[in-house]
């Protein structure tokens, strides 16, 4: 029995030594989940270490401070989530408007099946951290900028192909991002994903009316 007990710490230590990237990923997984569920300020390093099952030395080997860990979550996990949820689908869609429509519908359907709304990961951290530290604000703003630019680039490509001549790509992108962000905040508060469908309908109606006015003035 004593030999078995003494062997266990060596086994865990050996695993940590042999899989530093796995340990780093585990810490990021735990931190990402905690920051979304409880928030950055309510998540202590002690809680994160306990949940991840790592020592302070192992955690600080990868992330010297809690701020460094949060920046890694923002730059690696939140940016990747926006890429997967928004940027890639919009780029692959037949048009910018169809891409925006498909993302709203897909997220609403997923949340309805899930049964609860935790909110947009980017929004959640932006609300909590943008005024807390300039490095957080810059990292979060960069993701918003990349997101907006992807939609604007798609809308501009639509225009070059002879479609959507009545919209301003940059303004359309800003409106799409703002509408989604606001809709997710309301859906989180109400715990009702149908808000996304309502906001999408309003967005499409507004863009269509503006497009018609611009085209009418051009005739």
Quick description:
About 80% of the residues lie in helices and about 0% in strands.
Chain-averaged pLDDT: 88
The tally of beta strands, per DSSP, is 0
* Assembly level: single chain
Apparent shape: elongated
Q: How many helices does DSSP assign?
A: 10
Uncertain parts: 1-16
Helix content: over 70%
CA radius of gyration is 22 Å
Biggest sheet statistics: none
Derived from helix and strand composition plus strand pairing, the structural class reads: mainly alpha
Order of helices and strands: HHHHHHHHHH
**Separation of termini?**
89 Å
Q: Strand percentage, roughly?
A: under 5%
Please provide a written account of the structure.
This protein is mainly alpha-helical and 219 residues long. Helices cover 82% and strands 0% of the residues. It has ten helices and no strands. The protein has helices at 2-18, 20-37, 45-52, 56-62, 66-92, 96-114, 121-129, 134-160, 169-190, 194-218. Helix 9 runs antiparallel to helix 10. The radius of gyration is 22 Å and the shape is elongated. The relative contact order is 0.10. Residues 1-16 have low confidence and may be disordered.
């Amino acid at each position: 029995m004593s030999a078995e007990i003494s062997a266990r710490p060596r086994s865990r230590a050996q695993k940590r030594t042999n899989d530093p990237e796995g340990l780093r990923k585990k810490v990021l997984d735990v931190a990402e989940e905690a920051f979304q569920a409880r928030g950055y300020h309510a998540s202590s390093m002690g809680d994160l270490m306990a949940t991840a099952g790592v020592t302070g030395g192992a955690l600080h080997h990868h992330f010297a401070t809690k701020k460094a860990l949060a920046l890694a979550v923002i730059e690696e996990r939140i940016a990747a989530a926006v890429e997967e949820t928004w940027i890639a689908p919009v780029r692959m869609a037949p048009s910018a408007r169809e891409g925006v429509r498909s993302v709203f519908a897909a997220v609403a359907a997923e949340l309805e099946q899930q049964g609860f709304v935790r909110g947009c990961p980017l929004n959640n951290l932006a609300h909590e951290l943008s005024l807390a530290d300039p490095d957080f604000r810059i990292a979060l703003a960069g993701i918003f900028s990349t997101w907006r630019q992807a939609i604007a680039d798609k809308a501009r490509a639509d225009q070059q192909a002879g479609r959507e001549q009545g919209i301003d790509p940059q303004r359309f992108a800003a409106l799409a991002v703002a509408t989604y962000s606001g809709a997710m905040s309301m859906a989180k508060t109400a715990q009702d994903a149908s808000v996304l469908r309502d906001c999408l309908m309003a967005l499409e109606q507004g863009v269509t009316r503006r497009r018609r006015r611009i085209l009418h003035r051009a005739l």
